[in-house]
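Appendix B. Extra example for self-study. Work through it before the problem class; the solution is given directly after the inputs so you can check yourself.
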Amino acid sequence: MDKKSNAAQQQNQSLRFDVKKIRNDFPILHQIINGKPLVYLDNAATSQKPKNVLDAIEKYYREYNSNIHRGVHTLSENATEAYELARLKIKNFINARSNKEVIFVRGATEAINLVAQSFGRNSLNENDEIIITELEHHANIVPWQLLSEQTGATLKFIPINDNGELIIEEYEKLLSKNTKIVAVGHISNALGTINPIKTIIDMAHEYGAKVLIDGAQATSHTSVDVQKLDCDFYAFSGHKVFAPTGVGVLYGKEALLEEMPPYQGGGDMIKMVTMMKTQYNDLPYKFEAGTPNISGTIGLGAAIDYVNEIGLENISQYENELLSYANQLASEITGLKFIGTAKQKTSILSFTLKGIHPHDIGTILNNEGIAIRTGHHCAMPVMERFKIPATSRASFAFYNTHEEIDVLIKAIDKCKKVFN
Amino acid sequence: MFDIKDLYQEVIVDHNRSPRNFRVITDADKTMEGFNPLCGDKLKLYIKIDGQNISDIAFDGTGCAISVASASLMTDAMKGKSIDEAETLFNNFHSLITTENEIDSDHLGKLAVLAGVKGFPARVKCASLCWHTLRSALIDDDKPVTTE
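Solution. Structure tokens for the complete assembly:
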């Protein structure tokens, strides 16, 4: 097959999606790595940042850097306004009922720990059960293991099939009146599987369990409507959705958040402090102790603007085209095995190559200017399930091109040549 | 910019494809595990010691080409060496893969092919995992080795 003309043909189909124009919004993409143009295919680890995000951060530091929620001076008022505007943008982005349900945290990891410690530790005992899945990132495993050690609650997990899909019949068997928390990733970071979270949430609610969705991999690919989903908690990280690192969001239903004690103590989360007692602040501030990542949060607001402008539907449609193009070319490589072949998946190509360790693939690809992730992807149980130590993972974003996939496929061929 | 062939030299590719001393010594005097949590490389060393000499040494486990080839070459080089000689070799090898300056690598024999990792800093730990594991085994440190 003539790969070049195939790429050109595919490109024609995506004309409505002007990827060249989009790439101009991302300054980092235009550089030479090891003598070759950068091909950034590690988007599931972290995404790149568009100019409007970089500009928003710089503008904050150049023009109104100031602490929020306390000063009466103009800079502080401007900073507070921008920070709270970001909260409003996120409320709309995930369709929360109110701003009170949007808590700013460091990232999805902190959001999950917050729920485990503030909600879980105060409501679970040794008769209770927590259900997670075999697909989870360590961030959605370890906090629950800690909680299980602290409370005596039992931790159970939903297994996956050979395609990397959750086995819902097994989930049904695990559910009981003892189930108190179900914590599931929206999309698997290692395999790209999109989990049927609406079904999972509804089934848990039948038993009165609360559900946390780890959306770290989801918000950059698919729209999220927390009211429609009816999840109790939804966690995501800014840096996976084109915003800076160090800021993330915990959505929680207001009634639950009201009942939960603070996760950390400090400034900003109080109404009044005497030496004997503290009266906690209202939501969402009760959970936001200390000076937050103000510039990062403003950057997150700008990132949401950017995503809204392109449109998540256009993004996911284009990324699906990229994935099927990559799948088609990769399936012609002898010795290449796909890891994660779910029917519903995002633009993640996780694979092994016969006789070549993923780490060596990563180095050879890097020498060709290509950034991919190799290793266990912080999902060691998934690797164990497939009886492999690691995979190579190329993860595509809407600023990637069909030509970049051609470069990837050629480099995978080169790996085979080096080892033959 | 480095040529990928500087790293994956023929000797390395060969030792990865058919690693030497890749077996279990059931009556080993010392065994030690090494683990790189970053990439999941795992190896176990088996050592027979006769007086002050390494009379036999073998390894098993999983890892990338660099870590497997390094363990294969190291075990080949260590057979019959005294514990003091092993320590000297450790230090020389460590300089080979970490120091900027060209060093005299004649006495390192085949091990010199691993000098290429210098150009690939992310891979230095792959080459050194088995060496740290060996050192830990010989100085009787009971803790399994991790590169982190």
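Self-check: The radius of gyration of chain B is 14 Å. If your reasoning did not lead you there, revisit section 3.
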